[in-house]
Amino acid sequence: MCLCTSRAPDDNQQMQKLLLVRRNARTLLLPLIFLFGLSATTQSQVPQPARSERKASASLPSNSPWLFAGFKRDSRDGVYFAISLDGYHWKLANDGKPVVAPTNPAELMRDPFIQRAPDGSFRMVWTWAWYDPQMIGYSESKDLLTWAPHRQIAVMAGQPGARNVWAPALYYEPAQQRWLIFWSSTIPGRFPGDDSGDNGLNHRIYSTTTTDFKTFAPAKVLFDPGYSVIDATELPPTAPGKPFTLIFKDERKTPLEKHLLTATGPTAEGPWSNISAPISEPWSEGAAIIPVSAIADLPAGYLAYYDHYSQGQHYGAIFSTDLVHWSDALTKIDFPAGMRHGSFVQITQAEYDRLAALAPAPAPQSNPKAGPQ
């Protein structure tokens, strides 16, 4: 005897509806699964910045190595690099050959100034010409070796009559998420009564800001002590509540000044006050202050390096523990001969090792035609 069962009509209708819902769900889910899977795969294939490129300078240990970027002679052969593990003892990179070459036949590369960007890459500005054009040079790099094509930046646009744009410096302002650039310029007649500079030049420190190095705020005076000044650079606050320190050159020649002084201010843009007495001998320019760790016969403190550019050119240095009282430190440093006005930036050990291993490209070999066989 066979026991058989049959579904009621209502049960069959419910089962058919359930199967239809399942089929529709699969139809909707499959494209979504494919889409999200493709998105994840594509995202994993996008090149991510290298760790060193993302590292900001603020995260570098205080005892990290240093890079100096400067020029030699007339600067037409490019920018030279020197590296140091302690800020006192330096050696030339690239077997003493330029690392960054000019890309324009009329381009100078005087007074190069390098800073690390928040993403770990580097920005560089420099003096492009003595007088014309009134531009600064600009380039950027991820590794200090390969630099973008050089560009001119007309920082004094909107300031008619400007005679020159010299020795630019740049600093990142985190709170404003922008770059501050400043330099020395003369605008004849702008500051009457000061005729004690060279060749009628009467400099003040001008500045601009930018977020992208494409658009720039109008130039304005950053520092005017009442006389001609050039070659200003800054040291950020050394501790909470401490001021910014500005070091600059008094450019007056009659009577002879031509020495370094400091001033302090609450922000990277001043206002500047507390101008010091001279802290160097005359014929000193292109100064920059770096923090240094203790060595055998000196405590931790600050070295102010500068280009002693006349009567026996060499790089000089003075030392301070408080940025107020300075003493000569020339015998404490070992700096490559012939280097001129430049800038200092801390680098990682990996960046130091890469520069230390750098060798100049071999000169092209002539390829004489083969002789008779």
Describe this structure in words.
The protein has one domain (55-356): Glycosyl hydrolase domain, family 43 (Tachylectin-2, Chain A). The protein is globular. Mean pLDDT is 86; it is low at 1-22, 24-57 and 368-373. The chain has three helices and 19 strands. It has 373 residues and is an alpha+beta fold.
Structure summary:
The protein has helices spanning 9-45, 51-54, 349-356; strands spanning 66-71, 80-84, 90-92, 110-116, 122-127, 136-141, 151-153, 166-173, 178-186, 203-210, 220-223, 229-235, 244-250, 260-265, 284-292, 301-308, 314-320, 327-328, 340-346.
The mean pLDDT is 86
How many separate helices? 3
State the CATH superfamily name. Glycosyl hydrolase domain, family 43
Portion of residues in beta strands equals 25-35%
- SSE arrangement, N to C: HHEEEEEEEEEEEEEEEEEEEH
- In the CATH hierarchy, what is the architecture at level 2? 5 Propeller
CATH fold topology: Tachylectin-2, Chain A
| Class inferred from helices and paired strands | alpha+beta
Distance between the termini: 108 Å
